[in-house]
């Protein structure tokens, strides 16, 4: 569904039918997903260009995009290293074909809710050095249920990163309780109750407790350091992405 909304080609009839149902509830969903992806790309560019970050862990990477994290980061840090993480075997298989370009990129099949296993992975330990690292949670935490404790999970992962690291997060939110309820129910149906929920802005703020937010702080993904590298972000109505980038 995500790939289809981004204009990709790796999707099936069932995905397109599911997207049609989603668009009936929230017609601006395509714009939301594109805006969230554009935010992630800008965040990586800022972290590499302005802060010299050379290591990234991209959680819930999904299917490869047209411009991926290592490609963006290496525009400013040529030796940037990236660990791409996903639990979906199809995403991992595609990722290994496209994203593992050299010794500085690695695709790992791992459950985001078991970070101790990811950080103990021999390949991850070989690739990542004890230096500032950016943990990227682009449109993935809303896929976790409250029982999976995403706020505590982010805090756990932050605690495992070296000093002077960063975290970047985008999350689907809505001020309309009906949108939150209906979209969450639809996604739960489509995934066999393996999806989280559309949350509120205050929920996203909790992910950043104890961190130092980079300007402009927590904001709509459309407004986080917009640039002219990508198409202008589109206004959305029923829901949006709420985001931030912070130093740990």
UniProtKB/TrEMBL annotation:
List, alphabetically, the Pfam families matched: Methyltransf_19
Q: Which UniProt keywords apply?
A: Methyltransferase, Transferase
Please, one GO biological process term?
methylation
SUPFAM superfamilies in the cross-refs: S-adenosyl-L-methionine-dependent methyltransferases (SSF53335)
InterPro entries the UniProt entry points to = SAM-dependent_MTases_sf, SAM_dep_MeTrfase_SAV2177_type
Q: Tell me, what is one Gene Ontology molecular-function annotation carried by this entry? A: methyltransferase activity
Spell out the protein name for this chain. SAM-dependent methyltransferase
Q: Which organism is it from?
A: Streptomyces sedi
């Amino acid at each position: 569904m995500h790939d289809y909304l981004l204009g990709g080609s790796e999707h099936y009839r069932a995905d397109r039918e599911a997207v049609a149902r989603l668009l009936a509830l929230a017609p601006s969903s395509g714009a939301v997903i594109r805006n969230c992806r554009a935010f992630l790309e800008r965040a990586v560019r800022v972290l590499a260009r302005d802060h010299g970050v050379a290591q990234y862990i991209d959680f819930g990477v999904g299917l490869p995009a047209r411009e991926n994290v290592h490609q963006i980061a290496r525009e400013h840090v040529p030796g940037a290293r990236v660990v791409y993480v996903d639990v979906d075997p199809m995403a991992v298989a595609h990722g290994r074909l496209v994203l593992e370009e050299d010794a500085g990129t690695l695709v790992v099949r791992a459950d985001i809710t078991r970070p101790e296993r990811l950080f103990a992975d021999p390949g991850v330990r070989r690739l990542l050095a004890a230096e500032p690292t950016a943990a990227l949670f682009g449109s993935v935490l809303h896929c976790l249920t409250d029982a999976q404790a995403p706020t505590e999970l982010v805090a756990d992962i932050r605690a495992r990163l070296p000093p002077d690291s960063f975290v970047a997060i985008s999350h689907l939110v809505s001020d309309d309780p009906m949108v939150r309820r209906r979209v969450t129910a639809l996604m739960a149906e489509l995934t066999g109750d393996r999806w989280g929920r559309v949350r509120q802005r205050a929920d996203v703020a909790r992910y950043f407790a104890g961190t130092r937010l980079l300007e402009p702080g927590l904001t709509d993904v459309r407004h986080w350091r917009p640039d002219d590298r990508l198409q202008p972000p589109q206004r959305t109505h029923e829901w949006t992405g709420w985001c931030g980038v912070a130093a740990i």
